[in-house]
Amino acid sequence: MTVAVPDSQDIQPVVEEVAIQTSKYDPLKKLRRSTQEDLDKRVNDAYMLMLGGGSRRENCNQLAQKYNVSYRQAENYYFKAQQLMKSDMMENRQDLLNQVNNMRLHTIQKALKRGNLQVVAQLLDSLARSAGEGTAEQEATHAPTLNITIDAKSQDYLPSAN
Fold first, then answer.
1. Looking at the domain assignment, is residue 118 inside a domain?
2. Overall pTM surpassing 0.70 (yes/no)
3. Is there a domain that residue 76 lies in?
4. Residue 16 within a domain
5. Is 160 within a domain?
6. Is the dihedral of CA 53, 63, 23, 25 positive or negative?
7. What is the pLDDT along the chain (162 residues), one digit of tens a residue?
8. Which of 5, 41, 51, 60 is positioned for an S-S bond with 74, CB 3.0–4.6 A?
């Protein structure tokens, strides 16, 4: 059997368009490490999302979509932002307590002028609690002690059989 092969001039190359599928996994991603500036920006964005409200899951999803990272990586940014928030709150805690106590004292003076004794009593109670009075530890130190002693039996206390 013989097969006829056309001349090479008659052969046209067939060009097919190949669709390249993109996936979430990018093998070159490990080669592209974030700089410290990028990391700080992402953590600051996570911090701002926390201040803006929303649940942890919503905020992590927003971070993952915005920076094209995995949800787990977004949680890492969120965790670092939480650590920043804790340190910020601990540094400012004493100043905040002083401001709140000053506002309480100012409100007490106004309430006294108006005759709102119930408001005054509540504010004085909150001032005392902020100073540590009324806590479980404080109450435990002021709890009364009860001492019970049992004397030995004696003949004087037994009723006579007569």
1. yes
2. no
3. yes
4. no
5. no
6. negative
7. 565 555 656 556 555 665 555 556 555 455 457 788 888 999 999 999 988 888 999 999 999 999 999 999 999 999 999 999 888 887 777 787 888 888 888 899 999 999 999 998 998 888 888 777 766 666 666 667 778 887 776 666 556 665
8. 60
